[in-house]
């Protein structure tokens, strides 16, 4: 299907193929290679690293992006990467780019994020990958200030590669101008849930998940959250080896 | 709702509240404290760290487990932990135990696993947690040999705790007798996808996700996969700080 010799860049997201964020992303990187879009046909925020195993998947070519090959997929962002890599594309992508997400994926948000999980999946499959997010949930958020950073970061990855098993998690603060870029670590944080309990027309209880973000490292200066709060773009080199290497000896000493 | 003074243990899984694996888990740990079950009302395998944000959640008390307080939830395993902690239970659990999963969650499987994501979520919320999985997908898999290990590991966690942000990923090989237990690291592996393409009655293509597990560290002896292949129970201390600390300096040197 592809006969191009330029770098092959697979673009996906979790807000769905019609979201303004993915259009901004394609616009930012369109000169870096052959861009193919394979994104969910409906919003998939909060899907984490979910895959579709109990029902069939659909993938259909569409013409949402003028001048680019694009597909919509019935599955999750991770499904999009798997289907793209193994079924739609006829060669391994040189880069997978996910986003630009409407809303933060900094700190602990990364583990709930379909956008970042798509980038993680690419890294698992050995493909250099990066996810971009803007700390603004609005549909009509202003992605313009992100574009030069998106392009520069993707250019660097294409030129220099990334270590095996490493991807980048890039977040933009909500601002017209950024102070610069900080390479940093994931902040320790959590969401304090406060379920909104309601009664349906049949008299049965139901809940909406709502929560408040709590940065548990407010004092630390070297985290993504600190960089964003100070007006910088945060870049966190990210991995999927979840081993807590420092705890191995401790648990070995247990009597089990 | 709870007036008990014993340790409070929240039990969940991703195979659903009727799965034999969760019954085996409850049976193994029933003497260690007050056990409350909050599990999905339908199978949620492969849901990863998905949360339910675009539709309401239901949680209903049931009597599936004789002698125990139990609830079924319409959401994902992570939703079960969030709802359990913030809505159902009136005190913080002393331990969250997830499983016993029907099928391996060793190596890269951890990132797709609803069972392990429930345990990860507990750790994010500061609750000691462990996930158990048996490398046998059969509905009537034999969980008996797992039980003494499950009990001993939970007892150790209740007595000694775990470092902040650390949980355990425990996998059992398919065997009648285990050689022992190995504390190890997550193997580098991936799934080689081979989508099964079919045509529906309306003439449209659809795909089933099928794949082959590939251990990319066959030679390494210190991984969970190596331990399982040799007949040992694998225990991986696991964290959710996804920062690739070793890559921070490398990316800092880029011109961006």
In short:
Chain A contains seven helices and 13 strands. Chain A is of the alpha/beta class and 256 residues long.
Structure notes:
The structure is a homodimer of 256-residue chains. With 256 residues, chain A is of the alpha/beta class. The first copy, chain A, has a single domain (8-186, 220-252), classed as Survival protein SurE-like phosphatase/nucleotidase (Stationary-phase Survival Protein Sure Homolog, Chain: A, 3-Layer(aba) Sandwich), CATH 3.40.1210. In chain A, 24% of the residues lie in helices and 27% in strands. Chain A is built from seven helices and 13 strands. Chain A has helices at 20-29, 77-88, 109-112, 114-124, 147-160, 224-229, 248-252; strands at 8-12, 34-40, 59-62, 69-73, 95-102, 129-134, 166-172, 181-183, 189-193, 196-199, 205-208, 211-215, 233-239. In chain A, a hairpin with a 5-residue loop joins strand 10 and strand 11 (205-208). The radius of gyration of chain A is 19 Å and the shape is globular. The mean pLDDT of chain A is 95.
Task: Provide key terms for this protein.
13 strands; globular; alpha/beta; 256 residues; homodimer; two-stranded antiparallel ribbon
Write the layout of secondary structure elements.
The structure is a homodimer of 256-residue chains.
Chain A: E1 8-12, H1 20-29, E2 34-40, E3 59-62, E4 69-73, H2 77-88, E5 95-102, H3 109-112, H4 114-124, E6 129-134, H5 147-160, E7 166-172, E8 181-183, E9 189-193, E10 196-199, E11 205-208, E12 211-215, H6 224-229, E13 233-239, H7 248-252
Parallel strand pairs in A: 1-2, 1-5, 2-4, 5-6, 6-7, 8-13
Antiparallel strand pairs in A: 3-4, 7-13, 9-12, 10-11
Helix pairs in contact in A: 1-5, 2-4
């Amino acid at each position: 299907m592809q006969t191009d010799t330029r770098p092959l860049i697979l673009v996906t997201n979790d807000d769905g193929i019609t979201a303004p964020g993915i259009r901004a992303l394609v616009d930012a990187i369109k000169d870096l290679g052959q861009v193919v879009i394979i994104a969910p046909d409906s919003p998939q925020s909060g899907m984490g690293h979910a895959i579709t195993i109990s029902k069939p998947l659909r993938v259909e070519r569409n013409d949402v992006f003028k001048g680019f090959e694009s597909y919509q997929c019935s599955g999750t962002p991770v499904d999009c990467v798997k289907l793209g890599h193994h079924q739609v594309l006829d060669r391994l992508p040189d880069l997978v780019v996910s986003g630009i997400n409407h809303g933060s994926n900094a700190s602990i948000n990364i583990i709930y994020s379909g956008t970042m999980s798509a980038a993680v999946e690419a890294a698992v499959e050995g493909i250099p990958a990066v996810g971009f997010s803007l700390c603004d949930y609005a549909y009509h958020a202003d992605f313009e200030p992100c574009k030069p950073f998106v392009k520069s970061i993707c250019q660097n990855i294409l030129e220099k590669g990334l270590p095996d098993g490493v991807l980048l998690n890039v977040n933009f603060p909500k601002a017209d101008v950024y102070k610069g870029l900080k390479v940093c670590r994931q902040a320790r944080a959590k969401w304090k849930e406060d379920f909104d309990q309601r009664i349906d027309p049949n008299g049965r209880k139901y809940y909406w998940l709502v929560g408040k973000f709590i940065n548990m490292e407010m004092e630390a200066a070297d985290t993504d959250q600190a960089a964003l709060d100070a007006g910088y773009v945060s870049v966190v080199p990210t991995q999927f080896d979840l081993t807590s290497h420092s705890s191995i000896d401790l648990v070995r000493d247990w009597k089990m």
